[in-house]
Amino acid sequence: MKFKPLFIAALMALVGTGCNTKDFLNINTNPNQLPTASPNYVFTNALNVTTVNMLNANETGTYWAGQWSQGNGYIISTTIFAYNFTNGDFNYWDSYYDNLEDYQFVINNADATNQKFLKGPAKVMKAMLFQQLVDMYGNIPYTDALKGAAILAPKFDDQKAVYESLITSLDEAIADMKANAFASSFNTSDLVFGGNLTKWIQFANSLKMRILIRQSKVAGRETYIKTEINKIVTEGSGFITGADVAVGGASFYQPAAGQLNPIYDRWGYDQTGAKRALNNFPRPTQFLINSLKASNDTLRLKRIAYTTGGESSTIPGTSSKAEIAANYAGTPFGASSGYLPANTSSVGPSLLVKGEYNRSFILMTGAEIQFLLAEAKQRYSDVSLPSTAQAYFEAGILQSFRVLGANTAGAAAFKGSKIPNYDWDASTDKLAAIAIQKWVALTGFSGLESWSEYRRTNLPVTPQSIQVPDNKRPTRLYYPNTEAGSNGANITAQGAVDVFSTKIFWDVD
């Protein structure tokens, strides 16, 4: 077990309970026993850590989903765009498991500290992180994981079995939340819903839909998926609707070093308003921008990207040039020259506006949830979801406009427009339309989901990287060398991993 996050949280707990520096450093305290952290402080810290971890995984996913490329003001990253990576690259494993240990600490200690209301939310977060680990690595330590010194070399579980277990664990989380009301005095420890357990249950149901629909192309899973969807409907709490699942916000992020929204801090500006060195690194792809133009999807285009030349230096949140289609230009995926900031678009105001350091960090968008429901109803028309696939599809586009900050009236304009993959009636392949609209809606918010959905659906058909002569693309990540060093026998037991052909179980074609 990694103790650093827990020690930080323990220190927060000591400070939060009125312990001053003199007390903390008192030599009469037991030097052989670590201080005990309060679960509520650990939970708050864990949520914040989750955002940073997801930022890293989302960045890679956004590139490999074909939504972003690299600006040409930097030496091209061959690990990302030529796929020249090893088990020393893209190690999201260690940080995810460290974060999972925090949530497990909350689960293990909530009863003893009379904070039972935190167990359900911690289990929901734990399920989300394990789902993402499966989507990146396949088989992973699960039943033996998070045991600390009791199991130093945890065995790996079959990825399909982990997915099934996550549904069960989310059911347990919902039962916990129904049985233990959230104490209002601890509302501020919940950076997501402020202690609203109904919304946590809706989030759990929404995650269950993600996990179930991710398996929809796996042979023999239809009956299981339909049964579980009907169980969600019967439970009755519903799904997150008309909103997003997000961490932090105006009352949490502050204009100080280390306290900014992670996205703003990485690609936007520092606490003084100075541009970060990486401000021009991620660039919307030529494919993304040209696709939006071709579909007359200009309202979302203006939110997903700034014009060439970037954000205005005098009016934050607006482009330096007139916001007309001709002034938006994407970067070909993997291009290493010829596409500088002056002649390409940058990441737009849906993510980055100078001065807006305190936006919430989104874990799951309301748009994604509606598209999950649309696919469920389209694939399994007899499930007991109350609306039609078309209604969910159109709601997904509407929610995409909302989260981007675009005028939502623009979503309704696509009804009857005859534009394939936008107008339901004009889309001959309904599942393809859902997949393509989800891809657009996830842009900038959920890169790992974008990449996972791209691997599952093969949609949209994005161009190959200019750096890669053949058509190979990553299907997963390597197990990291850190795990190989401490748990090598169990990694060896997984067999040879080829990141271009060893697929996650739900990636069947």
UniProtKB/TrEMBL annotation:
Keyword vocabulary terms for this entry: Lipoprotein, Signal
UniProt keyword annotation of Lipoprotein present: yes
Range of residues in the leader sequence: 1-21
Protein's UniProt keywords contain Lipoprotein: yes
Protein name: SusD/RagB family nutrient-binding outer membrane lipoprotein
Organism: Fibrella forsythiae
